[in-house]
Amino acid sequence: MQKIVTVIVSLALVVALSGCKDMSPTQQSTLTGGAAGAAGGALIGAIAGNAGLGAAIGGATGLAGGFLYGKSKESQQNAYQQGYQAGQQSR
User: Fold this and answer.
1) Which of the residue ranges 6-10, 20-24, 53-57, 79-83 would you say has the lowest mean pLDDT?
2) Is 41:57 a contact under the CB 8 Å cutoff?
3) Quick one: how far is CA 27 from the chain centroid?
């Protein structure tokens, strides 16, 4: 059973990460966080006795963390661009 869960999670991770080409950085970090969280949660859940619940909790946590990370980086980039443009205009 544990091998099946590991194979399924690994395949899902490969498929999810291969489709990131046309996504924004925030979408990429959200998807990556969700996939990594689900994989980690499935492994921890398999050890604890419920891989499905672990994958669900880990996936949800990873999605939220990836989204927040992506938004933070997006905000930093926007602030940098605004400061750069303000500096160029003051010349």
Assistant:
1) 6-10
2) yes
3) 8
What are the distances in angstroms from CA 17 to CA 35, 45, 72? Answer: 8, 22, 21
Q: Which residue has the higher pLDDT, 28 or 12?
A: 28
Phi, psi (rounded to 5 degrees) for 49: 115, -5
Please state, as a whole number, how many other Cβ atoms lie within 10 Å of the Cβ of residue 24: 11
Radius of gyration, CA atoms only, the chain: 18
Confidence class for position 19, pLDDT limits 50, 70, 90:
low
Q: Where are the domains of the chain?
A: 2-89
Max CA distance (Å), the chain: 66
- Count other Cβ atoms within 10 Å, centred on residue 28: 17
Contact between residue 62 and residue 34 where contact means Cβ atoms under 8 Å apart:
yes
Q: Is 78 left (phi over 0), alpha (psi -120 to 50) or beta?
A: alpha
